[in-house]
UniProtKB/TrEMBL annotation:
Signal peptide region: 1-19
UniProt cross-references to InterPro entries, sorted A to Z: ConA-like_dom_sf, Skn1/Kre6/Sbg1
UniProt-listed GO biological process terms: (1->6)-beta-D-glucan biosynthetic process; cell wall organization
Keyword DNA damage among record annotations: no
Annotated keywords: Cell wall biogenesis/degradation, Glycoprotein, Membrane, Signal, Transmembrane, Transmembrane helix
Record's GO cellular component terms: endoplasmic reticulum membrane; plasma membrane
Primary location recorded for the protein, binned into one broad class: membrane
Source organism of this protein record: Pythium oligandrum
GO molecular function: glucosidase activity
Gene3D superfamilies given in the database record: 2.60.120.200
UniProt-recorded name of the protein: Beta-glucan synthesis-associated protein
Length: 731
């Protein structure tokens, strides 16, 4: 192909350098809600760095729809929840936005509503359809494949669902908002505010099999069988736009999950630690549930490395994750029996734990014998020490699960109860939940609180959970990347989570979790004979309410933080396109969404670079962006559908016409540029001509294409897109 002339290169140089996203004319970032207050545009991290607002949704417009195609950021589902013995069906009409006085918010409604479905089950004796009863209806809303991010501080101001009205009879309410929530009956739902890697779509199991929750980038079959990981570091040619020899997956970060008297904050990663690095199983106890009360009789079953010498004598190495950091929820009332002092605990830990379980004098308040007990952020407070006797996070006794394909005979899976499924590639692996459960106060169900999460990728990174700016729990990267080892180094070394993660809001109900509705195998009231249960059931519907969500990131040069679902370091777009049937069904299609970001003027919805100053790519209509033509997309119509990732001039030209999942935008831009150049030349010549020639020129100008100076899409110049266009789902 002949090289482009220098003047044409000058027209396209900006697009080739900056790839596919341009700044808006107003300067508003693509994912930022213009209603976010001016004094909330920046944040100082726990390490003292200033991060800028890069995404927000203030939920100030009532009656929003999140059905596929209706919103720039969020998509609701119409689908039964098929995990964790769920009791609810997710529906579009269980979520929207509304305003109560001056407070506008997003909500998910959970209500009684029986649904009977015939669903396919691969894990029954003979795979086939099964009748399933769902006694509740709620919602799940995702930003999957629309908005993802790598690193930053996410803040969600939320009120959790619970029965806290005077009519509910909840005894916790009478003691005030700072009272610990203890009466589980009145908190029957399982709300979630969480993230998952974009390569797996929550509750679409075909997309998550062998994908969730991997954060692993090694090729060593002696340590972990690579066939269990769908995208393995052993694969030199994974295809679908993926990077060679890069292990990928869909790990999980839960800002908060659960209800009742505790909230869980966790990361979920794989592969999990082998059995020799996990707590001992309570073989001498009649009920395995003793691990959740820390009162097992089996030696070593109440926590890793407790007792210290016993574990060391049996294994010769440490167990589980080291150096986890826990701090108090000081919004709870203090209780003297939980109060600790640093000197006593530090001396006990140094000497070694001798009892079979932790108490306030022997271990960190988290009951984690390996917890970090150093100063918090250079202050006089210590990680792991409940110096005020308030609500304190506990190391979660749930440490993960074994995931097996149907009929798998691997030793991890035990004796199979069903036949193998020839249509499913076999897998058998352990995943790990690195988690703390922190006791919650009643106020979390009665008013809004700000739940925050800092996430920094890399070996020096961490994940920190906070409540109103106060730390609750932190996982340093070293805990994930440098686990204890035996002489054979058989414990897989995972990496700190670095996948592009999308956001999920949901409210679930289950028959197996600690927080569950009464009579979980039947409608809420059962036979109607229990007065307390009847009052609780009368409290439905219950609501998860979110006032706003905001994300801050390091935007300085060299920062690895991103706000895309398809970063070059961790591409996802082509993989999803090539496996689209695993990510959608007839009721939940991956719909192309263009524009729809909230705006105040049309300057919020069009590109603002001087080179493109006469190109209108979108406009503000009823406070939401509408994109011009067919090639401009993104929430503010400032992103192109073409894929421009060229390394030289010739490749740059080719890339403008190839590799696009929508109409090639650069052809339109070139036409616009040519028209602009010819117009400028014409104007110049017109100034030199006689009056008669000037009149003739004006007549000629009136005959030019109507949009010659404002071409907004390839369709404006006759370029048509493919019949099935999922393009913006993969940008």
């Amino acid at each position: 192909m002949a090289p482009l002339s220098p003047w044409l290169l000058s027209l396209t140089a900006l697009s080739l350098v900056t790839a596919t996203e341009f700044a808006t004319k107003s300067g508003l970032r693509p994912w930022v809600d213009p209603d976010t207050p001016e004094d909330r545009q920046a944040y100082v991290s726990s390490r003292g760095d200033t991060w800028e607002l890069v995404m927000s949704d203030e939920f100030n417009e009532p009656k929003r729809s999140f059905r596929p195609g209706d919103d720039h950021m969020w998509t609701s589902l119409d689908k039964p929840d098929g995990v964790n013995a769920a009791l609810e069906y997710y529906s579009h009409n269980m979520t929207s936005t509304q305003c109560d006085g001056d407070t506008c918010y997003f909500y998910i409604k959970a209500m009684e509503d029986e649904t009977v479905l015939r669903v396919w089950n691969d894990y029954q004796d003979v795979p086939g359809y099964k009748t399933v009863y769902f006694y509740y209806r709620a919602a799940m809303v995702q930003s999957w494949n629309k908005f993802c991010f790598q690193g930053g501080m996410m803040e969600v101001r939320a009120q959790l669902p619970g029965a806290v009205s005077p009519e509910s009879g909840n005894p916790d309410v009478k003691s005030g908002k700072t009272t610990r929530a203890t009466t589980k009956l009145y908190y029957p739902t399982w709300p979630g505010i969480w993230m998952m890697g974009n390569l797996g779509r929550a509750i679409f199991s075909a997309s998550t099999n062998r994908m969730w929750p991997f954060s692993y980038d090694e090729c060593n079959d002696a340590v972990f069988k690579s066939s269990n990981q769908r995208i393995s570091a052993c694969d030199k040619n994974p295809g679908s736009g993926l990077n060679p020899n890069q292990g990928r997956g869909a790990p999980e970060i839960d800002i908060l999950e659960g209800g009742g008297h505790e909230v869980s904050s966790s990361i979920q990663v794989g592969p999990g630690m082998p059995g020799d690095f996990r707590p001992f199983y309570p073989t001498d106890d009649a009920a395995g549930g003793c691990i959740y009360e820390y009162n097992c009789k089996t030696k070593g079953a109440n926590g890793p490395d407790v007792p210290t010498k016993y574990y060391m004598s049996k294994r010769g190495h440490k167990s589980w994750y080291q150096g986890m950091r826990y701090s108090a929820n000081n919004f709870c009332q203090p209780n003297a029996k939980y109060k600790q002092d640093y000197e006593t605990v530090a001396a006990s830990v140094k000497a070694g734990i001798t009892e079979n379980s932790c108490d306030v004098t022997t271990c960190a308040g988290s009951k984690d014998a390996n917890a970090d007990i150093s100063p918090i952020d250079g202050t006089s407070d210590y990680w792991g020490i409940n110096s005020n006797g308030t609500c304190f996070p506990l190391m979660n006794a749930y440490t993960g699960a074994i995931l097996c394909s149907p009929g798998n005979t691997d030793e991890l899976c035990g004796t199979p109860e069903v036949a193998a499924n020839d249509k499913m590639k076999p897998f058998a692996y352990q995943m790990d939940a690195i988690s703390s459960n922190w006791p919650v106060h009643v106020g979390a169900y009665m008013e809004y609180h700000s739940y925050q999460l800092e996430w920094v990728t890399g070996s020096d990174g961490y994940v920190r959970w906070m409540l109103e700016g106060h730390p609750l729990f932190e996982i340093p990267a070293s805990a994930v990347e440098n686990p204890p080892q035996d002489s054979g180094k058989t414990n897989p070394k995972k990496i700190m989570i670095e996948e592009p993660m999308y956001i999920i809001f949901n409210v679930a109900l289950s028959s197996t979790w600690g927080a569950k509705p009464p009579n979980p195998e039947e409608p809420c009231r059962g036979d109607g004979s229990d007065a307390d249960v009847n009052k609780l059931c009368d409290a439905f519907p219950m609501y998860l309410k979110i006032d706003y969500i905001r994300l801050y990131q390091d935007t300085s040069p060299g920062s690895k933080m991103t706000t895309t679902c398809d970063p070059p370091t961790h591409p996802t777009r082509q993989w999803i396109k090539d496996h689209i049937d695993e990510y959608q069904d007839a009721q939940n299609l991956a719909v192309d969404v263009r524009g729809k970001g909230f705006c105040r003027t049309s300057d919020d919805c069009t590109v603002g670079n001087a080179t493109l100053s006469r190109i209108s790519t979108g406009s503000c209509v009823k406070n939401r962006c509408e994109c011009n033509g067919g090639s401009w997309t993104g929430p503010r119509c400032t992103t192109t559908l073409g894929s421009v990732q060229a390394t030289d001039t010739d490749d740059a030209f080719k890339s403008m016409f190839e590799g696009s999942y929508g109409p090639p935008w650069s052809g339109a831009l070139i036409v616009a540029g040519l028209c602009l150049v010819f117009s400028i030349l014409s104007v110049y010549m017109a100034q030199k001509r006689e009056a008669a020639q000037d009149a003739e020129f004006k007549k000629h100008q009136n005959m030019q294409p109507k949009s010659a100076m404002s071409i907004g899409s390839a369709s404006d110049v006759g370029i048509k897109g493919p019949k099935d266009n999922y393009s913006t789902n993969f940008v």
